[in-house]
Amino acid sequence: MLIRKIILVHLFLVSGILASDIAKSRETAITRAIEKVGPAVASINVEQHVSSFSFDPFFGFGFPRDIIPMKSSGSGVMISPDGYVLTNHHVIKGADRITVILSGGNEYDAQLVGTDETSDLALLKLDGNNYPYAELGDSDDLMIGEWIIAIGNPFQLFSVSNKPSASVGIISAIHMDFGQQKSGKVFQDMIQTDAAINSGNSGGPLISLDNGEVIGINSATFSKRMSEGLGFAVSMVRACRVIELLERDANPSPPYIPISFATDKDNEDELVAAAVYQKQPVAWPLKPGDRLIALGDGTSSEFKHQADLIHALRGRVGELELLVERDGEKKAVSILVKPRPELMDRIGVHASGIIFGKEELKDDESMNPVGLLLIHSVAEASIGALSSVESYAYLSSVDGNLITSAKALCAYLKEAESSGKKVRLLTTSFNWEYRAQTTYNTHQIMVTDVKLVGPRAPAGCS
Question: Is the pTM of this model over 0.85?
């Protein structure tokens, strides 16, 4: 009997050791990195309220419907135990309410601390402390071919298991530059990966397999119809500067740069001025052909891309010394640095699903000299969308009237809404037409839900 008990105990211990060994053998650098970072990955849920439009095929006319809530979601990552969450600007853009769900299903209301459209980053804050958080790594030392993990909330799958989804790939390329997009984002110095980044992954972390640290924030993919395995992330070295400024309530906006740069396919690692603008809030004493080298105080490395210049000047204010090469000789020039208006302070106008607002561009003195308002976005299924209004066109006139102020436009459209009148919008786009670079379109729209919009927009139109 005693021998039998000894054998049973021995078998139990052996099976326990084997089970432990099997469990350990299943552990890899991948599972350890996901276990480390996974609890800090969040689902970012956004609610917007837009006006929609219906068309009655029997009577042949359209009519506005009630204001409806539009919901969307993306990903984010907790970066500190006191509740700071990093995500993409485009994930929370236009949000009326933001909630954050962490692993396990706990949901929290989030406050928007600040956002930067250019880098496509936004910082949120949750009340409380002792949150699980991810460590931020160094993206300056990446190697093409090293393994990484993308973690997030693709296609809202977070809601199924209350846990993030992970995909594995490699660093396909670094320092990828696509320049400024129509949306205002500047895709420069991006990390390219073949890890699956799907709809909803935006704002989630790109993780180094070496140490489980965040090296990038997933931001964009090429069209799935045209490509496969082409995802891009904002590098952490760029993101950390924006985070630092947002956390101390400083303006993270990129600086005014009154220069357009030449593109040279034979030499892409130089920053050469092509045009110098004089009617920006700052003017720099440069000439076309000047090569911008670095800041004179030694705080920056040599500029290879416009992203390097933006990164070096972000958060700086006042006079700085800039090293340039002119006619083969290096010289120092004094430049004035001023950040663009903070996105949190910007005010636009919402009407019929359309967002109008100012957008200062460096070449406005030639392309938009009168300061027309820009159409920033048009909500799907809205009156504006069904009236064929398109984003990134300029508002040339309303019922024949030139209106260049957001508050003046709000007041005019509010009056039209109150009287139930349609308005005629004339919009201008920069597209090739017969012997012209501009095209014009008119849109008759019913005006609904007129209001000033923006994180700090006042009530009413004043």
Answer: no
